[in-house]
Amino acid sequence: MTKLAIMGAMEEEIEPLLAHFKDVNVVEYADNKYYEVNYNGLEIVIAYSKIGKVFASLTAATMIEKFGCDVLLFSGVAGGINPSLKIGDLIIADKLCQHDLDITAFGHPHGYVPGGNVFVETSKELREAAKRVADKNGLKVLEGTIATGDQFIHSNERKEFIENTFKADALEMEGASVAVVCNALNVPCFVLRAISDTADMDAGFDFDEFLKSSAVESANYLVKIVDEIK
Length: 230
Ligand code: ADE
Hints:
Layout lengths: L2 E6 L2 H8 L6 E5 L2 E8 L2 E7 L4 H13 L5 E10 L9 E9 L21 E2 L2 H14 L3 E8 L7 H11 L3 E3 L2 H10 L4 E9 L5 H27 L1
Parallel strand pairs: 1-4, 1-5, 5-10, 6-8, 8-9
Antiparallel strand pairs: 2-3, 3-4, 5-9, 6-7, 6-10
């Protein structure tokens, strides 16, 4: 029997998810809140990690190791890189990388440390389920590469570095770390994002403007995916 983890990074990203479920039980653990719900017999644990790779890794590992979740879905917002991605558009990650992981001084490629890989893949099965849902609902979804780092990107220079180095389609601050944790613990992982900005000099303004509406786009699609896989 599956126990599902649903993660966001910010409160705004999980609020619209929690709104879909009733009778939420709150468990406080490791300086965070975990929201347990029963959705037509399916056990789900929902949490927002706080921003960045360290908090996201802690939350993902906690949901798996303490709460016993065996599938993890992430929902939230991202900065768009691929010019086809407009604000509010959806992207699912087929693979993710850490754009700020840098030991190039020792001749290694960007995003690589010994024992790891530049790219970590997500669950093909979950992506296929998500694409079926998109087809059924007439949703346009891009499947592509997401680059993660502990930086809010708001310059064309850094955005172009990430685009050129990793051929990334979008960027955010948690996905790759969650995927690394899931991969190490053999838990199928799915990362969904809706675009809140395009990581350029207007990104700070756009993010504030569109965080909520894009988070809702992502959450609404994610709930449909839960219905598909349960
Ligand atoms: N999440 C949404 N927009 C972002 C940006 N521009 N940089 C990093 N993470 C983001």
